[in-house]
Design goal:
two-stranded parallel sheet; two-stranded antiparallel ribbon; 106 residues; 4 strands; single chain; alpha+beta; globular
Amino acid sequence: MSSRVFGILIFVAQALCAMTVPAASAEDKPSVASNQAKHDVVAVVPRSWPPQYDIDENGNPVGFAIDVLNEIAARAGISVTYRVVENFAAVERAMKDGQGDIIPNS
């Protein structure tokens, strides 16, 4: 694995870990719906930039960056919703407008 790829993986892992919520006591524990909302991440991705991002025949995002983020999220107990946009300019606009939390692999 190249040092650049490794560095990117570390960055994504750190960003996701920074978003986790500390465990609450039994008295302070929020409802499942409330707790779930705190662990949802919206990832904004461009429609096509293989091998990092692409769209499968069903319109779902696929690619290296998606695979890595899905694995990290599964290990961290975070769910990811993907917002697919046309290009990197649209990714930047979506992030500035607060429509996303993270750009996988960036």
